[in-house]
Structures are given as structure tokens and as C-alpha cells.
Amino acid sequence: MVQGVGFRPFVYRLAIGYGLKGFVRNTHTGVLIEVQGPGQLLESFCSSIRHGTPPLARIEAIEESALDCCEEADFHIGDSTAGDAVETLIAPDIALCSDCRRELLDPADRRFRYPFINCTNCGPRYTIVESLPYDRPSTSMRSFTMCPECEREYHDPLDRRFHAQPNGCPVCGPALLLLDAAGLPMMAADVEPSTCATESPKPLAGDAVTEAVVMLEEGHILALKGLGGFHLAVDASNERAVKRLRERKGREAKPFAVMMRDIVQVRSWCDVSEGELAALTSPEAPIVLLNKRPGSMLAPSVAPGYDRIGVMLPYTPLHTLLFESGADVLVMTSANFSEEPIVNDNDEALSRLTGIADAFLLHNRPIYLKCDDSVTIHLSGELRHSRRSRGYVPAPITLRKGGATVLGTGGELKNTVTLLKGTHALMSQHIGDMKNFEAYRHFEQVVAHLQHLFQATPELVVHDLHPGYLTTQWALRQNIPLLGVQHHHAHLVACLAENREEGPAIGLILDGTGYGTDGTIWGGELLIGDAAGVERFASLESMPLPGGDAAVIHPWRLALGYLHRSCVDMADLPFMKGRGIAQVLELLEKKVNIVETSSCGRLFDAVAALCNLRGEISYEGEAAMALMHAAGGVVGEKEFRSALREEKGRWIMHVSPMIQDIATALQQGMPVTEISQRFHRTLISCFLEIIGKAANAAGIKTVVLSGGVFQNELLFVTLLHELQQAGYRVLTHARIPPNDGGLSLGQAIIGRRMLS
Predict the structure, then answer these.
(1) Domain boundary among 325, 345, 375
(2) Last residue of one domain, picked from the residues 375, 408, 436
């Protein structure tokens, strides 16, 4: 990763410092340096390149060769060269650096309060680049002609903005425009929002920012254009404003992320460990899930009923100006209606966000590719992703070895795609849930952009086995060889690949939905194998989903199904009151419209509904999260009953005895907190026992933990610790999500293995 990160200026300054001659230039394969001088100085020069690179640079290989000397007059930066086979990488979008922040807030600086300040160490990269090499004509900045002063900086090798491709200033760069809900300017416009042509001079944008802050303080909803798309922002301490945002956005209960002024404010409202602090203040600047402290001023509707809240710090100059102009703490959520992709275009924002936003703070720098915020949590000593996007994409996952170019298309939920090229797994940003046309169109754009940017045509397209997924249907329309891969096999291999392991391994794969090879829905699986293939060694007991997908969004239906299959007397439990249970029981008795599942996610949902925590849900995982939070962060010592039985060559982890015990406990008045604690302990003990049987049978002590259920921190942390204490080598996810956001990596690796 040596383009767009100040690498050529770094090399130039080194060469000048050593008194060497030659040149450096960008190429389609990276950076080419030709340097001549005394041998000892050349050795020092090469050592400095290896050990003193710019903060955002990443070197995977250096190839050196000796040439006959052809005398150069000096050392200079040459023109970039293109080629057919792109091998270089592009940096992700990076948070505002300390040098630019200092200039942004310095009244004597010519970029004082300029909301698009950047340099080679920070600012937009991936979301503005159209093709490589990474030069200004290949970015969305090509329509902005630099003024003489910016031109001077750009061509001065000793300047921090030397060859900073998004370079600009209030005179020649992008500008802001504040519009009302009808799309009309609220003050004198700097530019028309749908154009890119520059007109100089332009006034500073401070007035627009100040007016936007006033609107936020008054409780209005602001649509704010950022790096990878729009946010919807409101005052996070204003309960009425947050509720209004929920109503307009169609987001009933899913927690909102917030942006806080600085780390001092974060510490006053949240508990922050050293690892969490490092993530918050890193150049990637992700959302970090932090434990809330009692007595915070956050509106209750920001994250109702949850101990953690997603927090990020201002990562763009515009965010910084909002807080410097008086904003305190802001809800900062993706600008979209529920289930749709983030908005990234001005005209699109004015169309799709009508009725949601009270005002629009736009700018006229186009965003080529949508890129949501990354979401992370610090657990068991590592920062772990639940959504890998801005700040991290398209930095590759480096593989053990190269091979064929393969495209993995991911699944339906939390979709990403992965392009394998050489030893790089190029994973896309978070695309989202593939449930509507807008999401499908975003998916197509991302697939096309990855192939275009890295000039790679896949030899094989790999898709999920589920025939109804839009990603599967897209794959079937391609004129490229195809491979269908079982969902949980892909999860296992994704974790192996992330950890640069080939296996075989024991994979405990726990999630909500995955199409099985037998036509049922899997999701509580113990697999043994690697990219070449897996054995389904064990699974959770199959349970009915009455009404199919209807049971997923109405977990009380699940609860009835689990009770019926477990032969529990249908005594009146609190969750049944006011429900149409007779119709569901009829489906169960007649076995009509019933889908079978071994899903661990559905087990969590059913128990949550039994405990009357969530009878209906508005987003995936809501019931399971409520059950986890009910445990109060404690895994119990006592267990409910469970059973392991070998049936037809596969071990079955029977949960019927546990369901029977939970129903009895509820009838006897056991507190839900204790039920949740015992439930977690029962599952963990069951998983430890079945892993032991698999280890003895296969002679393997390496265990993979993957699948969306492992976002349950109570289950994950406890099981990981107890497995390690028992002597297992445990592989987990950190750089990619354990949920379906990591699925495409496993698919692509399995596809490459098939071709080898």
C-alpha cells in the first residue's frame, strides 16, 4: 500500500538526504525506485525504506536488482505509469490527522475552518478513487483545478501535501451547501450541489456549519454528507429528537451509534479500556461498542435496554467543525430508510431522505462508492469487527499462498463480497442486507468496482447454496464457472483463512440461518474439515419454525414450536397472553408450513420469547441480545438438562430437556436473570462436551469459533476461555466479522481450493 500515503515524497526526501540521484514513480504494480550513488549510502537508503515508512504505508515485498549506471542529474519524482495487471493496493479512508486538525482550528492558517482539509496522512482515498494508479485524474477531485498556492504545495517534495491527490482549499476545493427540507438553499450557496465545477474565490463554510449546529440544538434532524455517504444526525441528549428520528427512519429499537466530542467526554459517559481507547483514536476511527456509565445524559431511546453503546470520535474535518461550533454529542446513523443502503449522492439524498431530514448539509465532492462506518468491540484482548467497512476497506487479508482469481458473493444478510487476487483477499465494505433493489444495485456496483479497480477477472464465482438469495441468483446469471458452497462450511474456512491456517480444524459454527445440504435450515453445527471439505459431526436438535420466516420476526411462534417439539404441557405461560396461539398450534399438529432448523440463533430467540423478553422483533438478533443482557454479564454455575446422542452417524445436541426445564422454571417463578445465566452455562457445557468428542474422534485440538451467535460476548468470552483452559488451540475472528460479513472470504477460499 504505497500510493496515496505520501510514499513518493518520503522516498524523495530520503534520497535527497543521502545525496543520491535517480527517480521514484507510481506503477500499476506499486512503486518503482531507481537510485544511484556510493554502495554504503545505497544500503542505508534501502534500510531506511524498510524501517521508516509513512504511517499509512504497507510494504509486503521489496525486489532489488543492480543496474549499469546511467548518470542522472538529480533525484526526481517521475510520471506514473499504468499497466494491465494492477498489483498495488489503495489505502482506506483515514481520519483527520493531528497536523490537519491543528491547521483547521488555527485562525492564522489559510485553511482555517475549511471542512475538506487533508494531506498525505489523512482524508478520503477508497471512496474517491475510480482507477489505479492513484493520481488526481483518477479520482473524484479531477474536476477541481488547484489554485496556485495548492499547486505549489502539491509539487513541493518537502511539503506535507506533496502529491496529496484530494488537495484543495477554500479557493479551489469542494464546498458546503446547507439546504432546507424542500431542497432550497438556507443561505448564500457556495456552489450548486449537483455540479463539480469549481468557481473561485469561494467563501469559508463556517456559516453553514454554525447554522447546522443551531438546527441540531433545536432538535432538528440533519442529513450530513461525509466520506462514504450521508449520516442522519440529531442531538443525542434530546429524547424527542431521537424518537422522531426512529419514527421517520423506520428503526423501532435497533441501537443508534453516537459521535462524541473527544475522549474526555467519552470517559465521562462510558467505561474505556486501553484497547478501546486505542481503537477510538486510531487512524481508522471505527465505532467501538463501549459499556455505558450510570447517569449519562444520553437520551434513553439512543440504545434502549442495552449496556453498551456504539461510540466514535469526529473523524472528518466537517465533524470536527460541528463540535467546535457547539455540538455536544450526536446520534450519527447511516442515512437511509430501514433495510436500504446508505445514501451517497446529493440528488439521491434529496429524493430518498425527503420526509426524514429537516435539512441537508451537502458538499460537491462526489463519492464514487458507498462506505458505511466500521463497528468493533474489544473482547478477550483483541479488537473484533462486527462490521468491516470505512477505515479498513480495501486493505487486504493476506493469505498463506496465492492461486486463482476467485469471487465470493457472500450471503443475504450483512453482505460483503471478496475478490481473491494472488495472496490478497480483497474484501469489500459492508453492503448490507440483500432484500431490495437498492441493496442489489449497490452489490452490483461494488462487484464491478472491485474488479475494475484491481483489474481482476474471476475464473470462478462462488455463491451460497440457498436458491432464493439475490446473490445466488446474480451468480447464476454470470457467464463464468460457478460453485455453490454450504453456508457453515464457508464460515469455518473464513476463520481459517483470516488466521492464515489451512486446517483441518473442528469448527463450532453458530448462527441464525444457513441453507443445509439436506434442505433444512442449519445454524448450530460442529463441522470437522478444511477448504477441501467438511464432515457434519454434530448439530443442535432440529426444531420447527411454524410459518417459516414469520417465526423469525415473531419469536413467540418459535417458542410454541420448541415447546410442542419438546412435549411440554401447553400450560399458560406469560408470553402466550394475547397471542393467536391456536392457529400456530394447528400448523404444528398438522405439520403444515413448517420449516425444520438446527439454528442456535433461533434457540436464543425461542428462549427469549419464552421468558417474555421479546415476542416480536424489529431487527435481526434483537431477541437474542435481550436474552444475553438479561444475564447481567454472568454465566451461571447451575445448568438445565441437555443430552448428547449419536443418531444415524451424527451426534445430536438435544435441547428438548432444557426447554422443558425452562418452562417449569418460569411456571415456578424463577427470575429471568437466573434462567438466562443457566441457559448460557448449559450451552457452553454442551459445546465443551461435543468438542471433546470431536477432538477424540479426529485427533484434532484446533477449534474454530465462527458465526453470528459469537457476537454474544458472554457466550464468546466464556467459551473461548474455557476451551483454552482445556488445552485447545482456538481460532477466532478479529479482522473480519464472525457473522455473514465474513462469509464471502470463506466461499472464495473454498472455490480456489477446488481449482487447485
Answers:
(1) 375
(2) 375
